[in-house]
Amino acid sequence: MFNLLFSVVTFVTAVSAVPTTRKKRQAPAGVPQFVLDYAPLVWLHSAEQYFPSDIAAQVSNSIPQVNFAAVPNVPNPLDLNNLDSLSKDVYLTSKDDITKNPTWIKGVKPDASGKTNNAVTAAVIVNDKGGGNVDAFYMYFYAYNWGGTVLGLQQLQFGNHVGDWEHNMIRFSNSKPQHIWYSQHSNGQAFKYDVVHKNGLRPIAFSSNGSHANYAISGTHDHTIPNFNLPGGVLEDYTNEGTLWDPLKSAYFYSFSAGENKFTPYDSSGATPVNYLYFKGRWGDQEYPTSDKRQVKLFGQAKYSSGPTGPSDKQLNRSKVCPDNGKDCILRTILVPKGLDELNELEADIV
Fold first, then answer.
1. The pLDDT of residue 25
2. Residue 324 domain-assigned?
3. Given the DSSP bridges, would you call strands 122-130 and 251-257 parallel, antiparallel or unpaired?
4. Neighbours of 56 (CB within 10 A)
5. DSSP, residue by residue, 29-59
6. Which structural domain range is residue 73 located in?
7. Is residue 21 over pLDDT 60?
8. Are strands 262-265 and 251-257 parallel, antiparallel or unpaired?
9. Based on the structure, what is the number of domains in the chain?
10. Per-residue pLDDT tens for 210-236?
């Protein structure tokens, strides 16, 4: 027990020691101040090779394809301002062989201030629902997702894919944060804001090595069972305090009207692209067939899976803190992994 308490104190002290200069950020006029004040900071893993990536660069390094065939009559050049002209069947397919690890998929490592220089790597989307209720989505983009290994075996790798959109969502009531969502693979975790680690007002998210799933604590996280975050198992994510990233320093900012399904940039100069948010296709390659020498499939799991959908597919007008995916929405009140034997303690927090 003493060792556990010592570790917790050490962790909190380390997080609190993050230089306050990293809180500095810029945003256009109109973005609610509380959305900025409580914006998450992200710890990237110390072994991370695929850093946050420029959203526009993903498009310029891709060829739109459907069923592995090039799409005709594509705007030239294709960019964030006309990406919505493509159908929902389209995959933004890498021009390069991903197994060759082209430079652009490695993204941009944040500098000492937490900024990804010369790369816009995040999008902040604010859904004001009225009555003092606001959901703020902090969207993080990576050019590549490395799925990791199974049981630590390098020959068993699943879930690699081009393109990776992750996010935190904070639910506010009268400008005060109530809950925060951490996206993780096909699901994620929700916590009461008061219990998560913070730097000042800003909550901390830990991005897992390669997969970029977001967690509220550092360490080892088994995601075999969605929503449980066990401390070890078959499919493990790893998080630690490697490189600190401040997504606000290189982000686009938008308001979202659910009734109109409309995104409006807070920057009124016309410099902020918006139409890419309406693109319904995939931000990466289609899952390679087994006839492709790069592909390995075992027990129905593919080494290279399809790229993800974008921000508009993240349930921006969700009723619960968690997206509606058929799973219970557990609002956690403590920061430890949840085992099956602890489920009864959570029943009062299931909404």
1. 44
2. yes
3. parallel
4. 16
5. TTS-HHHHHT--EEEEPTT--S-B--HHHHH
6. 32-349
7. no
8. antiparallel
9. 1
10. 999 999 999 998 766 666 666 665 578
